[in-house]
Design brief:
Order of helices and strands: HHEHHEHHHHHEHEHEHEH
CATH architecture: 3-Layer(aba) Sandwich
Largest sheet: 6 strands, parallel
Helix content: 40-55%
CATH topology: Deoxyhypusine Synthase
CATH superfamily: Deoxyhypusine synthase
Strand content: 5-15%
C-alpha cells in the first residue's frame, strides 16, 4: 500500500481575530520602576497563572480578616528553620493569623530558638555516633511541659507556650509558641509518635504526649468548624497536617457545621500528593477555592506577607 502525503490545500483556516485566546497583553507584567512600593510591585506582576494566584491568596486573607473569619496557618518546621518566625509573629500581632497548627518538629525548633537563638543540628554528622537528637534542654523542658500540661487539660501547643513564658529564655520574643500563648492565639501541635527527638529523651512519656496531641486535635477541629468564609494556609507540611486537616474537616461536617466555602492554599518547594488532595482539592469540592503555589518558603511567604500587609494598610 503506497502512502501519499496529505494534501494541506484541503485544510480550512479561520481568522486569528475570531479565535478565543487565553493570553492577552492586558495581563502582561509591567517592568519594575525604581522606587515602587509593595502594592505597585504586586500590581505589576502578570495576571497569569501563579502570580495571579499569589495575588488572589493575599486578597482572600485580607477579605477573611475584614470579615472576622478564621485564617489558619498550618506550618511545617521548615517555616522556623528558614527564618520566617518574625513574619508569623507579626501576622498574629496584627490579628491576621487567628490559629496555628504545627508538627512536632516545629515546636522543637521553636523552643530551641527561644532557648539559645539557634536550632537545626547537622544530622549527617551527629547520626554517626548516635548523638543526634540528644539535646538535654530541649527534651527535658518540652517533656516536662507536656506531662504537666495534660494534668491541666492543656494541649501540647499551649503547654509549650506556657513553659517558655515561665522560664523566660533570652530569645522568647522570637518564639511562635510563646507569642501565641501571650496573644491568646490557639496553637496546636500534631504529633506522630517516634518522629521527634524529644521522644528519645529519658523523660518522654508516650501516654502524656498522646494525650496532649489528642487535646490539640480536638481543639483544632473546633477551629475548623469556624472556617466558613476563611482561609487555611498549609506551608511546608507534606503529610501530617494535610491529613489532620482532612480528618478535622470531616468531623466538623459530620456533626453539622456548614464548612463549605473557604480558601485553601498550599505553599511548598514542590507539590506533594496529600497537600494537593487533602488541602487544595478535596475540601473545596463543595465551594470555595484552592491554590497551589510552588517556591521556596523564604521567598514566597515574605512576598505573601508583604502583599497582605500592604492590602490591609496594616
Amino acid at each position: 500500500m503506497k502512502i501519499e502525503p496529505i494534501d494541506l490545500n484541503r485544510v480550512k483556516t479561520s481568522s486569528i481575530k475570531t479565535r478565543k485566546n487565553k493570553v492577552y497583553i492586558r495581563d502582561f507584567a509591567r517592568v519594575y520602576e525604581r522606587g515602587w512600593n509593595v502594592k505597585q510591585f504586586m500590581d505589576s506582576l502578570p495576571r497569569i497563572l501563579k502570580a495571579e494566584e499569589l495575588r488572589a491568596s493575599a486578597n482572600a486573607v485580607v477579605t477573611a480578616k475584614k470579615n472576622n473569619k478564621q485564617v489558619i496557618l498550618a506550618m511545617g518546621d521548615s517555616v522556623v528553620k528558614v527564618g520566617l518566625s518574625p513574619l508569623v509573629i507579626e501576622l498574629m500581632k496584627k490579628g491576621i493569623i487567628t490559629a496555628i497548627a504545627m508538627q512536632g518538629a516545629g515546636v522543637i525548633h521553636d523552643t530551641e530558638i527561644a532557648l539559645i537563638g539557634e536550632t537545626s543540628e547537622d544530622v549527617a554528622v551527629t547520626i554517626k555516633d548516635g548523638s543526634f537528637g540528644m539535646a538535654e534542654e530541649t527534651g527535658s523542658i518540652l517533656n516536662d511541659a507536656i506531662k504537666s500540661g495534660v494534668t491541666k487539660n492543656l494541649g501540647l501547643g499551649e503547654a509549650a507556650g506556657k513553659i517558655i513564658d515561665e522560664i523566660a529564655p533570652p530569645f522568647k520574643d522570637l518564639s511562635i509558641t510563646y507569642n501565641a500563648y501571650k496573644l491568646g492565639v490557639p496553637l496546636t501541635v500534631h504529633v506522630a509518635y517516634g518522629t521527634d527527638i524529644i521522644h528519645m529523651h529519658p523523660k518522654a512519656d508516650g501516654a502524656a504526649i498522646g494525650k496532649a496531641t489528642e487535646i490539640d486535635f480536638r481543639k483544632f477541629t473546633t477551629i475548623v468548624t469556624m472556617l466558613e468564609g476563611g482561609v487555611i494556609i498549609n506551608i511546608g507540611s507534606a503529610v501530617i497536617l494535610p491529613e489532620v486537616f482532612l480528618k478535622a474537616l470531616s468531623v466538623a461536617r459530620n456533626i453539622g457545621y456548614d464548612v463549605k466555602n473557604f480558601t485553601a492554599i498550599n505553599m511548598d518547594m514542590i507539590q506533594h500528593y496529600r497537600p494537593l488532595k487533602n488541602v487544595v482539592e478535596r475540601p473545596t469540592k463543595t465551594g470555595g477555592q484552592g491554590f497551589a503555589i510552588t517556591g521556596h518558603h523564604e521567598i514566597m511567604f515574605p512576598l505573601l506577607t508583604a502583599f497582605i500587609i500592604e492590602l490591609l494598610g496594616a
